[in-house]
Design a protein that fits this description.
With 461 residues, the chain is α/β, with parallel strands linked by helices. It folds into two domains: 144 residues, Aspartate Aminotransferase, domain 1 (Alpha-Beta Complex); 274 residues, Type I PLP-dependent aspartate aminotransferase-like (Major domain) (Aspartate Aminotransferase, domain 2, 3-Layer(aba) Sandwich), CATH 3.40.640. The protein is 44% helix and 15% strand. It is globular and about 70 Å long. The structure holds 3-[O-phosphonopyridoxyl]--amino-benzoic acid (PXG). The site of 3-[O-phosphonopyridoxyl]--amino-benzoic acid has 16 residues, from helix 6.
Length: 461
């Protein structure tokens, strides 16, 4: 492919350092170092501006499910933009792409979800949930039901309501969050928090914190419980098999909405269309984004159950909520083409029966590495827990330092792996081949070996 950008890497880094404020980044620190410049990508591979090829173990940011460079999507978006680059979906108007994508995305959703509200990101989807769930209880004649229960170390986005629903302490500390009306309970993190407890029992105990919270707050005040089927940004926390059935029991017995944040787990990642299918969650609302368009054009949405849609439509009248770009034609065109690829290539099924088990078998063997306390994987979501002492699973001092170093070493070895503290995580494109899966695990092992060498050297010094 012809070079898109004739500036040198140093020139790009200088412009970036001078003018670009990056998300979730110490901007001064990055400006001093210079950002890594990704210039192009194809399939599961990124190419830097200097020509280094890196296997993308994160599918961008958990989103490029169909892989990079899919011309079907590119052409569909170009066609759509020539025909109708923009029109809104406010004021009694729609357009062909919005209607078609709404039909297509609800067709793959669980059968009780037949409507979608379009947004532009997962954060906007969760802010939409925050408002819509309250509107639902107003419509039901129960306006006191306003409080959301969510989880510590959950991630639901960066906007004000979404980050309040999230349980990221560092985010809350920076801006006086959470806002009123959000109550956090503990997460089902076996490796980090079960402390010798049987995982099945631990899963049930963590789920029962929901029941206790409802009792403390008063059921008449609780609006909804929101959680990711598998926590992504929190460190690929795969709940024990006992967790979701117990949450479901509680939600069936109590009058609260259940919101499954499918922004990462949706669109094939766990081996079914949605994490809710994998864990039989039966959510009332499902925020979605990321894999919805495989990241080709930004888009998010909220899938709405008939149970919620019915009363809101019957009693609430207009929902005073929407974004200029809700149902943007280019995003809808990308989404339609993306779903078509996922269906034609049977990607959710491929994750369940082919590449998921293939990668898992190899990834779990990394659990033998002297620096790994646990390797886990579900669908194409994987994690490695780095430990300083494998016999006791003691962590490294200065939490996060080993993870950060491992992340850098991994990129040096040609693999994007992300670090959450000292947990290494992957979420590769769903089109990953067997050869690429072998390559991914090889490169991860080499990064771990390099970290082990450095650790041994610094202990000897
Ligand atoms: N819900 C979940 C479960 C997410 O993972 C969002 C909502 C927010 O989506 P938007 O599109 O507003 O970013 C997310 C996003 C990371 C990382 O470092 C994860 C996300 C976003 C940015 C970084 O793991 N997840």
């Amino acid at each position: 492919m012809a070079a898109l950008n004739l500036r040198t890497t140093a020139e790009i880094q200088a412009a970036d350092a001078a003018h670009h404020w990056h998300p979730f980044t110490d901007t001064a620190d990055l400006a001093a170092k210079g950002a890594r410049v990704i210039a192009s990508a194809d399939g599961c591979w990124l190419t830097t501006n200097d020509g280094q090829r890196i296997l993308d173990g994160m599918a961008g940011l958990w989103c490029v499910n169909v892989g990079y460079g899919r011309q079907e999507i590119v052409e569909a978006v170009a066609r759509q933009m020539s025909q109708l680059a923009y029109y809104n979906t406010f004021f009694q108007t729609t357009h062909p792409a919005a209607a078609e994508f709404a039909e297509a995305v609800t067709a793959v959703a669980p059968p009780h979800m037949n409507r979608v509200f379009f947004t532009n990101s997962g954060s906007e989807s969760n802010d939409t949930v925050f408002r819509l769930a309250r509107v639902y209880w107003d419509a039901m004649g129960k306006p006191s039901k306003k409080i959301f229960i969510s989880r510590r170390n959950g991630y639901h986005g960066s906007t004000v309501a979404a980050s309040s629903l999230g349980g990221m302490k560092a985010m809350h500390a920076q801006s006086g969050l959470p806002i009123a009306g959000v109550h956090h309970i503990n997460q089902p993190y076996v490796f980090g928090e079960a402390e010798g407890m049987d995982p099945a029992e631990f899963g049930r105990a963590r789920a029962r914190e929901l029941e206790q919270a409802i009792d403390e707050i008063g059921e008449e005040n609780v609006c909804a419980f929101i959680a990711e089927p598998i926590q992504g940004a929190g460190g690929v926390i795969i709940p024990p098999e006992t967790y979701w059935p117990e949450i479901r029991r509680i939600c069936a017995e109590r009058e609260i909405l259940l919101v499954a944040d499918e922004v990462i787990c949706g669109f094939g990642r766990t081996g079914r269309w949605f994490g809710s299918d994998t864990y039989e969650i039966e959510a009332d609302l499902m925020p979605i984004a990321k894999g919805m368009t495989s990241g080709y054009v930004p888009m998010g949405g909220v899938l709405i159950s008939d149970k919620v849609a019915g009363p809101v439509m019957a009693h609430a009248g207009e929902f005073y909520h929407g974004y200029t770009y809700s149902g943007h034609p280019a995003a809808c065109a990308a989404g339609i083409a993306n779903l078509r690829i996922m269906q034609e290539e049977k990607l959710p099924e491929r994750v369940a029966t082919d590449i998921g088990p293939y990668l898992a078998e190899r990834w779990l063997k990394l659990g033998d590495h002297p620096l790994v306390g646990e390797a886990r994987m579900k669908g194409l979501l994987g994690a490695l827990e780095l430990v300083a002492d494998k016999t006791t699973n003691a962590r490294f001092p200065n939490s996060g330092t080993a993870g950060m170093r491992c992340r850098d070493l991994s990129v040096e070895h040609g693999l994007v792996m992300r670090a959450v503290g000292d947990t290494m995580i992957i979420s590769p494109p769903l089109i990953l081949s067997h050869a690429e899966a072998d390559e991914l695990v090889d490169r991860a092992r080499r990064a771990l070996d390099a970290l082990a060498d450095e650790t041994a050297r610094s202990r000897a010094a």
